[in-house]
């Protein structure tokens, strides 16, 4: 008799335990920060949710924040180059105008506070589109993935501390102008 062993990721049911009201409350918090009503739309699938925040924009004001929540129900790679092995948040887009007023910083602090409190997800991943964007995310503790493309470097932030793991990895990234 022949036996086949098929690898399956650990299903954590992280998405089944989440109350989507948290994301509506986050929209209210974002509205206070932006000074305009922020709407949220949530697209739910069995192993992922896509959450989109937007505020009506004028010529000078703009707000869009899009991210996905992934439960490792199947093995796949995210756009940011990470394999899903644990409940993960993948940030796709953050656009806040006007810049230079600290609005994006306040948005991210509020987002990280809520995601850490929730304790359902292990890490947040993203791709930095530029050197300035990478510097922005580094201020919140995001670090470069060890092997990453110099054009769109992958970054991550662990929401649950790694006990006993060394944090001495340093990666130099060079950006090439296209």
Please describe what this structure looks like.
- It comes from Paenibacillus validus.
- This is GNAT family N-acetyltransferase.
- The chain has a seven-stranded mixed sheet with strand order 1-2-3-4-5-7-6, with helices on one face.
- The relative contact order is 0.14.
- The chain has 178 residues and is α+β, with helices and mostly antiparallel strands.
- A hairpin with a 3-residue loop joins β1 (39-44) and β2.
- The chain has a single domain (15-158), classed as Gcn5-related N-acetyltransferase (GNAT) (Aminopeptidase, 3-Layer(aba) Sandwich), CATH 3.40.630.30.
- α1 (21-34) runs antiparallel to α2.
- It has three helices and seven strands; from the N terminus they run αββββαβαββ.
- Mean pLDDT is 80; it is low at 5-9 and 163-176.
Write a brief structural summary:
By secondary structure, the protein is an alpha+beta fold.
The strand count comes to 7
Strand percent estimate? 25-35%
Tell me the CATH topology.
Aminopeptidase
Mean pLDDT over the residues: 80
Q: What's the CATH architecture? A: 3-Layer(aba) Sandwich
Structural class: alpha+beta
Instruction: Please work out how many helical segments DSSP would assign.
Output: 3
Q: In which range does the helix fraction lie?
A: 10-25%
Number of domains: 1
Beginning-to-end CA distance, first to last residue: 57 Å
Question: Overall 3D geometry?
Answer: globular
- Low-confidence runs: 5-9, 163-176
Order of helices and strands: HEEEEHEHEE
Instruction: Report on the biggest sheet.
Output: 7 strands, mixed
């Amino acid at each position: 008799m022949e036996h086949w062993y098929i690898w399956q990721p650990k299903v954590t049911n992280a998405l089944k335990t989440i109350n989507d009201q948290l994301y509506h409350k986050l929209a209210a918090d974002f509205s206070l920060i932006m000074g305009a009503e922020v709407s949220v739309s949530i697209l739910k699938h069995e192993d992922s949710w896509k959450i989109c925040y937007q505020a009506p924009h004028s010529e000078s004001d703009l707000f869009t924040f899009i991210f996905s929540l992934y439960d490792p129900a199947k093995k796949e790679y995210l756009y940011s180059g990470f394999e899903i092995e644990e409940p993960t948040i993948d940030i796709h887009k953050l656009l806040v105008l006007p810049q230079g007023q600290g609005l994006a910083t306040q948005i991210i602090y509020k987002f990280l506070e809520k995601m850490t409190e929730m304790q359902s997800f292990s890490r947040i991943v993203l791709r930095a589109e530029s050197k300035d964007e990478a510097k922005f995310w580094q201020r919140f503790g995001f670090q470069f993935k060890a092997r990453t493309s110099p054009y769109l470097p992958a970054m991550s932030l662990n929401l649950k501390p790694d006990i006993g793991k060394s944090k001495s990895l340093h990666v130099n990234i060079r950006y090439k102008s296209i």
